[in-house]
Task: inverse folding
DNA sequence: ATATTATAGACTCTTAATATCTATAATTCA
DNA sequence: TGAATTATAGATATTAAGAGTCTATAATAT
């Protein structure tokens, strides 16, 4: 069981967009260079983020992708759900009733994970990063997210 | 991202073996009937559980599978690891250092999930089930795990 | 108009999971 | 000893999902 590469790229892209800020749109070409991935592939990922309502796109020259107004409240879980869907980690394949104990326990575990992923918002991360920056502890490659 | 069917069968099998108790070995044929799955497929799963040290096997007539002595301390996480392996849910595919923030956060989330899965041991579940049983609240299909 | 950029669909490639079949080894019992 | 029973191992086939490419189309700025 693993998160997809698409999720990986989505999380990094969102983090990078939140560093850049919502003012300047970035083209997929630039983002693809940044993450060493093909532009057409990253396009599909970005389109999912647009459809999920967390990114805004604009065609034409000076177009590209930028965060939407609500960006600070977007959580890791939101991003993961946008890419992987919201299906749960476990579907009991046996045909006993809905009160399958195995199912219940695994879903409780999943809920713990989701609680943590929901608590990590882009706003919080940006705040944390800026604290680090002010404290002078930011690493040399500050462009890396 | 989903747990495999094999994990599903493994969890149910272990739970069922813990209801039966470690005294009487059960053949794969019986277990496969119970879970409506092919015996050869379930065999491979059981072999993994044997190799992980949580189940004991015996060939020949009256042979089969039974729990080992330590069965009460076996957790859901142990069983999942036996089937799925212990690799983490996330490997950042970018080549920035080991201190990838995305990686860290997802791994923290995974750790929360694992803590819960580790706390669910077969011993605890058996105890809980027997309380339910004594309290007369057990459902009609008490053979279902 | 033309260049730029996003969107959408078809398509291929690869990998992992699922599942089956067969042969072999170990053990019981008559 | 021999036959029946049961687990183990390996080869193989099938399917589904992820990863990635290519091309055509739509939207927009200059």
Result:
């Amino acid at each position: 069981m693993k998160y997809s590469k698409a999720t990986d790229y989505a999380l990094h892209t969102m983090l990078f967009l939140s560093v850049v800020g919502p003012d300047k749109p970035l083209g997929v070409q630039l983002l693809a260079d940044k993450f060493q991935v093909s532009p057409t592939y990253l396009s599909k990922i970005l389109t999912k983020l647009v459809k999920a309502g967390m990114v805004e796109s604009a065609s034409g020259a000076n177009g590209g992708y930028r965060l939407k107004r609500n960006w600070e409240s977007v959580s890791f879980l939101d991003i993961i759900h946008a890419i992987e869907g919201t299906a749960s980690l476990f579907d009991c394949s046996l045909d006993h009733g809905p009160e399958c104990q195995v199912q219940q326990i695994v879903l409780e575990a999943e809920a713990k994970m989701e609680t943590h992923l929901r608590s990590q918002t882009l706003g919080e991360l940006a705040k944390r990063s800026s604290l680090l920056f002010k404290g002078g502890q930011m690493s040399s490659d500050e462009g890396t997210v």
